[in-house]
Queue: 2 jobs
Job 1
Amino acid sequence: MNKDEEKLSMEEAIAKLTDDDVEVRKLAVNSLEGINDEAVVEPLIVAMNDENTPVRHKAAENLGKIGESVVDRLIEVVNSEKGEYKRFASFALKGTGSQKAIDYFAEAIHDEDFGVRKIAVRSLGELKATDKIDDIAEIMLEEEDWGVRLAAIRALGDMGVEEAIDPIKKARRKEKDKDFKKAANKAIKKIEKDIKKK
């Protein structure tokens, strides 16, 4: 948000999240950044279904920053929605960094929506869900979407444990794409660096 741009009060922003003018909705959702108040949760959940992508993204980002207190509600949303709405709700859930979301993400790596699968696999890596290494390795080898497979490589790289190296090497041997091989090498180096730090 620009320093010169006005900022609405929490109450004004909540009211204007449903305004007909997209610029007003953008201002509203940006005004709610950093507000950790129960009153903003449901309006932001609704805003994740806005017709405007930047509004949806910012609503999801704001929810994720609220953290642990919104996790259960976001899990309800992701379990009852599909498509882009589920994708943005998954992104919000990822933003919370909550361990409570691991079970959802472990299931979501098999979702019908590639965007949900991609967010789920990256989240498992960021949450260091080392008990899901085999599931991520399977996605890396079997997944049709290149972006999801690349996310799986990065997720294993985020694990920072020795057990994640062999699945990456196996996928690297099977793959012909140079960018994929580079990502695999980078992930292995990241793991090796993390292990040295311990």
Job 2
Amino acid sequence: MTEISVLKKITLRKVTGILRGSLLKLFARSCGFPVTIEHEVRFLDSRSIDIGKRVMIRWHTQIHENVKIGNNVFIGKYCDIGKNVVIEDAVTLADHVTILGNTHHYNDPENRAGEIYSPGTKIIGKGAWIGQSAIVLPQVRYIGRGSVIGAGAIVTKDVQDHTIVGGNPAKVIRVLSASPEKG
């Protein structure tokens, strides 16, 4: 394949993704521009979704109802974003990230996978970065601003601002400076 044909293919994919984003404006509660949505992205209820400006959603991602996505957000491939999630500005979700919004009442010994409910709104703070294949469980309400979730982490508790966590269950690895370091 020549360089020109590769560039044409890349340009066509980008234009197609932006067109998908423009179509979403017809159905979403609100949608900024440009929004790039690659193929096989599923919105379970697009009417309850707000999307900011300069958002990229990669292929095979699923977004549930009542989700708000801020500006300058990148969502990788094969992500699953549960219901009642707020993703603030400049957040990066790597590939295969799962943010669970629902859980089950399990007090009934006859039906441990009882009635489904949402424990409330989950906030992913401004500038947070969630690494590949990380899972954020339903009881987590807050991933702090400027925090980093390591690849493969299972987040079971809220994460404070400017904190790196990793592991299963995720534990604090380091607390970061709130302002950029000058070198």
